[in-house]
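Structure ticket #2291
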Amino acid sequence: MSDLPTVALLGTGTMGAGMARNIAAARIPLKVWNRTRAKAEPLADAGAEVADSPAEAVRDADIVLTMLFDADAVRAALEQARDGLREGAVLLQQSTVGVEATEQLGSLAGQLGLVYVDAPVLGTKKPAEDGALVVLASGPEEARDRVRPVLEAVSARTVWVGAAGQGTRLKLVANSWVLTVVEGIAEALSLAKALGVDPRQFLDVVKGGAMDAPYVQLKGGAMLGGDFTPAFGLDGAAKDADLIVEAARAAGADAELFDVVRRHFERAREAGYGDRDLSATFLTH
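Resolution: structure written out below.
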């Protein structure tokens, strides 16, 4: 136990709650905080200590893990935590915040005396609960051993991809593919309906072939079955789409397709489907 870090996890929503349970199951000392305390309280049964404030959560923590909705939420939590932060602690930033914000958070970490590790994850609610996420970690070499017990608890695989900020860049690339695939499925099913074809036939004819993918059957089936229980919330997908377009344009990449996808997710969010799964983009077609 003495070799294990003390962890503060800020943000126990869809992803953070599952991650917290796996950290606690690994017998890593853990404090948790969430803006809505009721979402954090069930984690007490898993062995976590529930804090009333970010400052209380991070006091004496070796690692401060942030899994919050966006960059503004991360900044706000860190500012509230300022008085409790330990000099030299690691900020393990695992929220999806975009390129510009991850650089800003790195600067803030330096101002707060923290070692910055940018480590967003691939996976949704179930992989978070199962400890089967893929972590795209980036940061200083000397921080790797310090965060290893935590990353091993929450993930099936950790890939180190370079200096802090590279993890976020790779996460945006991966999410650009996820969002494009989901929107493409919605478009194909909608086109089938418009042409008088049973959309289930599309899923059947691609099943098991080179054009298939697990997401095609999973999200396509959910769309046709009307099951939009959130695994990856549409609000988050729309937020990430904004970040992808912003990053692509800043880098001089062609963002035309991504912008169309972004507008479709925004349309679904404006239609009131933000609290449903990202596959609910289908409902606006």
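Closing remark: The radius of gyration is 20 Å.
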